[in-house]
Amino acid sequence: MISSDSDNNLLLEVRDLKKYYPMKAGLITHTVANIKAVDDVSFGIHKGETLGLVGESGCGKSTIGKLIVSLEKPSEGSILYKGQDLAKLSQGQMRKIRTQLQMVFQDSYTSLNPRKHIFEILAVPMIYHGITSKKDAEDEVNRLLDLVGLPGNSKGRYPHEFSGGQRQRLSIAKALSLNPELIVCDEPVSALDVSIQAQILNLLRDLQKELNLTCLFIGHGLGAVNYVSDRIAVMYLGKIVEIANAKDLFTNPIHPYTRAICDAAPVPHPLIKKKDAIILQGEIGSNVNPPSGCRFSPRCKFAIDSCKSTDQILRPTQEGSLHLVACDVMVGQNGGVQA
Amino acid sequence: MKQNRIEGERYLQTVWRRFRRHKLALFSLTVLTIIVLAALLAPIIAPYAPDKLVGTFSGRPNSKNWLGTDQIGRDVLSRLLYATRISLLVGVLATAISTLIGVVLGLISGYFGGVIDMIIMRFTDMVMSFPYILLVLVAASIFQPGLWNIIIILGFVDWPGIARLVRGNVLSLRETNFVKGNIIAGMPNRHILLSEILPNTIAPILVYGTSVIALSMLDEAALSFLGMGIQPPTASLGNMLNGAQSLTILTSKPWLWIPAGALIVILVMSISFIGDALRDAVDPTSRGGKK
Amino acid sequence: MIKYIIKRILVALPVLVGITIVDYAIMCAAGSPLAMLKGPRVSEAAVAAKAITLGLDQPVYVQYFVWLKQLLHGNLGYSIKNYQPVGSMIATHLGPTLLLMGVSLLVSIMIAVPAGIFSATHQYSKRDYTVVTLSFVGTSIPGFFLSLLLVYLFTVKLGWLPSSGMSSLGTGGGFFDIAKHMIMPVIVLATSMAGTNIRYIRSAVLEILQQDYLRTARAKGIGNFKVINKHALRNALIPIVTVMGMEIPVLFGGAVIVEQIFSWPGLGLVAMSAITNRDYPVIMGVCLLSAIVVLAANLITDILYAIVDPTIQYK
């Protein structure tokens, strides 16, 4: 399922990951159904790579982010970080590796403790983990601020004194302060004005190069995700439907859902028409007891009967290809693109 | 109106600036300060010792005894000053105890959740179900009334409200990104609870605390009035009103009871106004909002 | 809906059990609880014999169940002071207290709701400030002080209202007579409650008034009066109901003091005299009952809540 040639370069590997949220009801509360937020997802991230994760709201991408940084525990499956299964670690063991997996949140306004000034926010965790001493803390903080493009006098100020874009830079600084190996960015620019989005995305790209960061970039705007990612995975209702290099995905989307969202991206000139543009009908399904077989089949114009009954598996488009698609119609059972 | 914080302003300055806008509260603050100072300085400024017999029985106010004398001849003004001390003491200490208990339980319950939360909350429900006065009265009857017993009893009966409040705040703070960020950063629970969560709930706790002080003072007064609180000869604002239960005192000797009652009203009102303004100063969005 | 009610009852049961345990524990601290069930004037030998039947030699937790069983049969013990069964004492005195509490609650709502709404709709006007200040005064006056003032004014100086009892001697009651006796106690109880309620309702209505859907209603051209009464009030019912539920334990406490001062023959009076006399069986009976009343009131509040706000059931 995962390409095998650079397995030993995988920093993080997710296998058969499932996260179900039970829905309780009834007089004596028992579980009547499960919200299948993440339903059997597998992928890997190589060291130094940025993997983008795209999908509509509710497809499970944020949940995957939370699972990777251990804010929640998976219902099933494993998350292998440097070979260790995070789900099986004890609290104490987990605490030791926590610094290596950090997160940048979408909402910059609540990401920083409003009662503390910037220096305290950045320095305290670093001192606690021994990354820097009290003496050197100020220099370290200056370095971090410089790294994200903020002036040194930010140290004494409070979060509310900064704009949204600046707060996001601070959040990035905070995530980087613990020298993590992997950063999960959970829609870091979705809440920002468009012009600021570009700034932050550029910052992320620069940091990736400078620090050789490994990154999982979660977003719902294809443009933003494409800008910073090396590979992209597309999710729908808890499952990955396509995963490929960023360039491949854009020039050659195969899964009907991927094609639909690529086609939906606005083009700069009204006279450029897209041939056979796929326009999505219907609404995204529910992830409570979702339909069997391919989740996308109710809305897919290429759907055939077998789509509704057979579970789709990610298959490479050709032997040895890194471009994987979960669609039996597009990529036949024996490999090879068909439509 | 400047609702947003001015750049560079520390949090306390913001609160004070907003607080200053409430004229009534400022006035109350002045009044309260005067009364508190007078009470603290009672040993110095009271004309007589509170227990000393200095005049006739139930004498009218005159130049020697500005508020007259009580049934056994003690100076009412002096007793009033000392009584205020006692009432304030009870109010503040009882609140301190109940706040401490409530904050600890609320933090634990809200942060750790699960079974602990359920147990603590059920227990809180139970204590809240018992009518307050009954609990206090019963406790007073078992443990004998007296200054310190009253303080402890009131303290142990008032905490459910604070616990619920803190728990609610902790529950919502737990979901904020900065708390989650600290969890991801591997900070220990102790740090998160005390350094991240607690400072963000202090404001509502303080506001609620002022109302608890007011309530405790009222309760102490009621208890002492009924004879189950501060026992004579120690004076408290409540037991000074006790005598008014007799019709003769009620009708013909107003100086024996009206000053004490009025003082309670003034104290409690001032504290309430201050608390109200504090609530607004600390979180201007909590009331209808000012557009 | 029924499911919701049953669920709430189920949740309340452990609390009820907890209350009985607390009650029992306090009784243990005060003396032997089973002994209190015995009854008056029994000889030593009878006591010894009864002790074994009652199981006084059993460990504490077994005694608890024996006590509980007695309780469920209606045996709440006998008053140490007047040898009457506690159960009947409570029964006869419950009525007057409920009457007092009920009327006070109604009066306080009748004052607080219009005042709160008025205040909210005239925010920042002088009238608003007056109402708010008055409500502060209401909550700051100790119940007993207000009672004294009222008695001073209406009984002593004006002679209009009787100051004690539920009915005048020799008249045997009658609606107006009882009403006359109720006026002052009800004023005292209603005042402090109204004080809190006014502020609460005011801020709740203020919040609602600023909601966007009301702006839409106004923009649609619906007159302001209708906007407030039809659209806003429905949502304001929720905090009103909450507040009512929260007030009941407080109300009971206030009743204790007021009944004492006005010699109103209710549970509060019974409780007070029992406490002064250290009459533990009576104290415990009253405690238990009042806790149950409070629990029932909370339950009813929750159910009313669910009727008024249909989304509650699904939380």
Describe the structure.
The complex is a heterotrimer of chains A (339), B (291) and C (315). Chain A is α/β, with parallel strands linked by helices and 339 residues long. In chain A, 28% of the residues lie in helices and 23% in strands. In chain A, helix 3 crosses helix 4 (137-147), helix 3 packs parallel to helix 5 (164-177) and helix 4 packs across helix 5 (164-177). Chain B is built from eleven helices and no strands. Chain B is elongated, with a radius of gyration of 22 Å. In chain B, 48% of the residues are buried. Chain C has 315 residues and is mainly α. Chain C is 78% helix and 0% strand. Chain C has helices at 2-30, 33-38, 44-54, 60-72, 86-121, 126-140, 143-157, 175-209, 212-219, 224-262, 267-276, 280-308. Chains in contact: A-B, B-C. The interface between A and B is medium-sized, with 31 and 21 residues.
What's a concise summary of this model?
The complex is a heterotrimer of chains A (339), B (291) and C (315). Chain B has helices spanning 11-20, 23-40, 42-45, 76-112, 114-129, 132-143, 147-174, 177-184, 189-226, 247-252, 258-282.
Q: How many strands appear in the DSSP assignment of chain B?
A: 0
What average pLDDT do the residues of chain B reach? 81
The proportion of strand residues of chain A reads 15-25%
Order of helices and strands of chain A: EEEHEEHEHHHEHEHEEHHHEE
What does the radius of gyration of chain B come to?
A: 22 Å
Strand order of the largest sheet of chain A: 6-7-8-3-9-10-12-11
Major sheet of chain B, described briefly? Answer: none
Low-confidence regions of chain B? 286-291
> Helix count of chain B, per DSSP?
11
Mean pLDDT of chain A: 83
- Secondary-structure-based class of chain B equals mainly alpha
Helix content of chain A: 25-40%
Main beta sheet of chain A: strand number and arrangement?
Answer: 8 strands, mixed
Strand content of chain B: under 5%
Helical residues, percent of chain B: 55-70%
Structural class of chain A: alpha/beta
Based on CA atoms alone, the radius of gyration of chain A comes out at: 21 Å
Low-confidence stretches of chain A: 1-6
The end-to-end span of chain B amounts to: 8 Å
Globular, elongated, flat, extended or rod-shaped: what is the shape of chain B?
elongated
